[in-house]
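Postdoc handover notes: sequence design on the structure in folder B. Input tokens:
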């Protein structure tokens, strides 16, 4: 059995706490929070900093814990679909970052791929969860939720996360391999 990496456990707990706290910055304006997706930032960073397994767990836990404690986002179907989406964000960002050569462009490639795959998973989860409750979630709703209404958050994440990851690399907080 592999020894538990206490440093990554502590960092992951801090990323969950950030995922819990950052939405308070936009909490008074729910529409702004939906557009900027502040909870996604620590999940994506966790994937880069701690690796894909930790990013996956932090991504799955963050919206569920926040929903269970604060009822924001509402558990069904929003927080449940977000749990799948954000688990994929953390896992894909971490996995690609680990596998691709350590070049600045590959941080961006990892991030954008994680956001695209995560949004596809969110759409599938919403389709299944809304459908299971007798509703419908069509392609227009998917486009609106995943891209049209989310473009400010997409731009924020692209502008913020790669420079943060590269700064953490320069500070040797993230080990440079390959």
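Designed sequence:
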């Amino acid at each position: 059995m592999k020894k538990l990496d206490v440093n990554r456990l502590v960092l992951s707990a801090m990323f969950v706490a950030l995922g819990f706290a950052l939405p308070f910055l936009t909490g008074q304006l729910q529409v702004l929070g939906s557009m900027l997706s502040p909870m996604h930032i620590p999940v994506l960073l966790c994937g880069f900093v701690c690796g894909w397994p930790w990013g996956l767990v932090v991504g799955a836990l963050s919206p569920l814990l926040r929903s269970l404690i604060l009822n924001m986002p509402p558990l069904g179907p929003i927080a449940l679909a977000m749990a799948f989406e954000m688990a994929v964000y953390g896992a894909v960002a971490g996995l690609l970052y680990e596998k691709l050569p350590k070049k600045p462009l590959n941080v961006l490639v990892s991030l954008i791929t994680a956001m695209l795959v995560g949004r596809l998973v969110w759409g599938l989860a919403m389709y299944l969860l809304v459908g299971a409750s007798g509703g419908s979630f069509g392609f227009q709703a998917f486009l609106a939720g995943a891209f049209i209404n989310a473009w400010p958050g997409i731009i924020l994440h692209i502008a913020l996360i790669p420079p943060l990851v590269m700064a953490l690399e320069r500070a040797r907080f993230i080990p440079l391999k390959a």
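Context for whoever picks this up: The chain has a mean pLDDT of 90. Don't rerun without checking with the PI first.
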